[in-house]
Amino acid sequence: MKRILLAANMYPNKQFPSYGVFVQNTERILTNGGFSVDRVVLEKKTSKPAKAIGYATYYANLLRKGLYGHYDAIYVHYASHNALPLLMLKRMKPTVRIVTNVHGSDVVPEVASQEKYQPYVKQLLEQSSLIITPSHYYESLVKEKYGVDTPIAVFPSGGVNQAVFHPKEKAAARKELQLDPSYRYIGYVGRLDVGKGWDHYLRAIKLYTDENPSHRTKFIAVGSGKDEAAFKQLAAELGIEDVLIHYGLMQQSGLASVYNAIDAFVFPTTRKGESLGLVGLEAMACRTPIIASAIGGILDYVKPGENSWLFEPGSAEALKNQLIAFDQLSDAERDAVAEAAYQTALEYEESAIQPKLISIFNEN
Prior knowledge:
Elements: E1 3-11, H1 21-32, E2 36-43, H2 48-68, E3 73-77, H3 79-92, E4 98-101, H4 112-115, H5 118-127, E5 130-133, H6 136-146, E6 152-154, H7 170-176, E7 184-189, H8 198-211, E8 217-222, H9 228-238, E9 244-247, H10 252-261, E10 264-267, H11 278-285, E11 290-293, E12 309-311, H12 316-327, H13 331-346, H14 350-363
Parallel strand pairs: 1-2, 1-3, 3-4, 4-5, 5-6, 7-8, 7-10, 8-9, 10-11, 11-12
Helix pairs in contact: 2-3, 3-5, 7-10, 8-9, 8-12, 11-13
Domain Glycosyltransferase subfamily 4-like N-terminal: 48-158
Keywords: Transferase
Organism: Domibacillus enclensis
């Protein structure tokens, strides 16, 4: 039985149930596939001192287990935050096999402070035995930016957990969330943070409601983050608080209820480093089509007009126009797209993608 050390500086807990949940999904896939999986992970910390202590402990455990543990591979998520200790480990123990899964800002830094990691990311990718990317889009980015000779495999970030994300009656989901059944609902799930597009979502709501004063639509936003105060301020400035329902952090079961309660899921990211967009697939797995930015890994699975819709990234006007176009579809047209979205999501379900990850670790 092959032994794998799973390393990640993002891992969910009760307080932050969605933080790095794809890492947990990956762990479950490997375990179910017959691998012996040990892990060294870091759960979310909310204060600077706790974060500093957390990272120091995490790095120390990663080095200790990497040096003295007997593993066939170290499977690490997030190259940028793990590059330095792993490069150190590689110097101390040259025989160690590192499989690096790159995500998001690993390759496309979102703020200036992330740029400093780029030379170390390149070195880690050069010294890895294998690179895993969540999408073909991201695979192309890695090849273009770093020009490394390390083999690259595509695996979609732990996939969709169908035990959680699956279709159920819309009326039942709305009842769970105590939503007024006389309204239709559009939703957003994501961090309230840079590049996530929450501001474009709010501005599109304003444009939509101004153009449709007699509408019977309410808009849901689920998430928290560094920009939560700015989110609330913008909603107040736009005067859309009466049609906007905001939930904070939710367990995955709650997110599934949201996906099932809404008629369409808005995915307004502007991040070129959107390496897959798992929330979009989770919504589709609940038979809810998405209205998404035409950017990043989303382009790997969205077929415009067939299983979901796309709009110009960063354009509240384009999003508003897509919401109006969605209004004009017949029930039969919406149902056909919803079914196609569901069928697409099934291709990313854990049991469907499990053989891919197992073969990656068996063959490399």
